[in-house]
Write a structure and sequence with these properties.
This protein is of the alpha/beta class and 145 residues long. 37% of the residues lie in helices and 18% in strands. It has a single domain (3-144), classed as Rossmann fold. Strands 2-1-3-4-5 form a five-stranded parallel β-sheet, sandwiched between helices. Helix 3 (54-64) packs parallel to helix 4 (83-92).
Length: 145
């Protein structure tokens, strides 16, 4: 049974309230419930973390190298700013899928660059909460390969 670290970055705890025209009305709890159900169907186990603090996220990623088969991450705003997060993902060398609720390339110019994408197995963006489901399925398929 593959064990997956799911990471939700800064401000994702505000889903359902924050900019619903961009991010929708689905809450983080809704997403976590759906991810857990999908993982159960795929015979996988999830450990889910959300933090608004970069160091906490980096610590969780570094810890995952000892127990996880892969990482599913929505880095939120850290996508566009954090070389330290990029380095942590690169250092643990686990298959990692980056997901985004919105299409970052259809938004403000500063969101068009991801420091994370180049070291990830893949990136899925623009499908709302479904980005997480697509990402988890893709990650589990990659691990099974």
């Amino acid at each position: 049974m593959p064990r997956i670290l799911v990471v939700h970055g800064p401000n994702l705890n505000m889903l359902g309230l924050r900019e619903p025209a961009v991010y929708g009305r689905v809450t983080l709890d809704d997403i976590n419930t759906r991810l857990t159900e999908l993982a159960s169907q795929r015979n996988a186990e999830l450990t889910i973390k959300q933090s608004n603090h970069e160091g906490v996220i980096i610590d969780a990623i570094q810890d995952a190298r000892t127990w996880a088969a892969g990482i599913l991450i929505n880095p939120g705003g850290l996508t566009h700013t954090s070389i330290a997060l990029r380095d942590a993902i690169s250092a643990v060398a686990l298959p990692t899928v980056e997901v985004h609720l919105s299409n970052i390339y259809a938004r403000e110019e500063f969101r068009h660059h991801s420091f994370i994408s180049a070291i990830c197995t893949g990136t899925i963006a623009g499908f709302g909460w479904r980005s997480y489901m697509l990402g988890l399925n893709a990650l589990l398929d990659k691990i099974a390969d």
